[in-house]
Amino acid sequence: MKKNISIFGCGWLGFPLAQSFVNKGFFVKGSTTSEEKIEVLKSNNIEPFLFNLEELPNNILDFLNSEILIVNIPSKNIEGFKNLITFIEKSSIKKVLFVSSTSVFESAKEIITEATILKDCPLKDIEELFQKNTHFKTTILRFSGLLGYQRKPGNWFKNGKVIPNPEGVVNMIHQDDCIEIIKQLVLQNCWNDTFNASADTHPKRRDFYTKAFLEVGRTMPIFNENDKKSIKIIGNEKLKKTLNFEFKYPNLMQLPSH
């Protein structure tokens, strides 16, 4: 019997994630905010739904007629998420994977783990909305900066924009690793937990962006040399140990140029 999974947000990460679950034999429902993408989802055997968090449709319960829900949208709209949760409570959803961000952490001298205190921010409040709800199990997955394929770091600072904190470090993760981590959390039934996800290495921003600019054919980036150094290193040991996970792209200085 096929497992049903619903993916709220079939964009840069959610769409290939949905394809990956289809290939694993799941029946997948996916949401999009773009009418043009409806046919794309259909042609990839993903049941399409057109809506956004701010205007949840009358057929939202049809979308939520699954066992598992993956919430993968960048919104910080707390009221919108509260409204979504009221519908989840009425649905067949038993497990929620909420894709969050390591931006919930301040810079720190020590390596940041899942036990590190979060800063006060909307994303922290949204995480808690899901975690505290007893109608379903929630796992929080916090990704560092997302890159890979169309998202090339060498294109991020355009029109002479100065890059801050050159002596700081980068925390990033490739799309392929993001997809595999989500799949493994689902397949290994890792619920009611929290994970930080970042590649193994944390090169200096100066080194990383200099290489990234050269890879897309741009001249040397401009750095703010007066910007004070702040460090934030996201640890991934809990994730690797729990899932027995090995990153496809552990070294951010050795990424493919695709």
Automatic annotation (TrEMBL):
It comes from Lutibacter agarilyticus. GO terms for cellular component: cytoplasm. This is Nucleoside-diphosphate-sugar epimerase. GO terms for molecular function: aldehyde dehydrogenase (NAD+) activity. It comes from the Bacteria. PANTHER family: NAD(P)-BINDING DOMAIN-CONTAINING PROTEIN-RELATED, PROTEIN YEEZ. InterPro entries: NAD(P)-bd_dom_sf, NAD(P)-dependent_oxidoreduct.
